[in-house]
């Protein structure tokens, strides 16, 4: 299990007592938390909660009474929230998480059971049923997995770049039991992540996957203690957001192209090269100048950003340097 780090005290998710109670629920076993929540219904709160802390955007699924199952309307709201994050020039990394003890139990089957709803109209939504699942995001997105992350909820997790999973959480395509197909990228992304043999096992059997196995097969990137999923996802997001974003997103986009779109090795290599724009190279030159001045030397990853000082402090530093006694020249 990955070592715990200090969680920022300014996390906005803990501002209200209600949020604190929801966070406590994640410390239960998935089945216990889900049972306790099943008797509670909340219709006065928004289905999607968006909070921002610096350049990190947190997008929360907020239907804990049904383990954050997503219907068509909630899927459209999630799409709008993610698109707003992508268009926000001050936001670098996003976190997708669930409130109330579980990440997401998948598509809300009660909608599909409604005789007035046509299954084709649900499945054929342009962007995806569970959200904008039929494309890659424009910026890095981390999934904080707590409690149940199953069926369409697992497809949501797969569309994120990285996954942080609490040690008592469970993943799996539980929709296999009811004949509900994967239509939000699950059968496309999973083989690319863990290989077709392991993916076939999970897709055909629908069995649950616990945290240790998920980490071992590369399904998730971090396993953390119960109750720390969102905080550890936030810490991971901050470690990514501190880097030059233009370069980071170029390399990210190149990997996605090579994995899903490239026709050959030569095609992938050409994409990597030709998308290195002049503006991107200017960022690289600036980084080289910073390194020349001593920033990041010795393999250091912390304190790599140039600190902006107010004019008065710069003037003071310059004055102190000028006032320093000069060494006397030897005769």
Could you characterize the architecture of this molecule?
The chain is of the alpha/beta class. 43% of the residues lie in helices and 12% in strands. It contains 14 helices and nine strands. The strands form two sheets. It has a six-stranded mixed sheet, sandwiched between helices. Strand 2, helix 3 (72-87) and strand 3 form a beta-alpha-beta unit. Helix 7 crosses helix 8 (196-205) and helix 11 packs antiparallel against helix 12 (265-274). The longest helix is centred in the first third of the chain and has 16 residues, at 72-87. The chain is globular. The protein starts with 16 loop residues before the first helix and ends in an 8-residue tail after the last helix. The model is unreliable at 1-29 and 31-41 (pLDDT under 50). It comes from Aedes albopictus (Asian tiger mosquito). InterPro entries: ClpP/crotonase-like_dom_sf (IPR029045), Enoyl-CoA_hydra/iso (IPR001753).
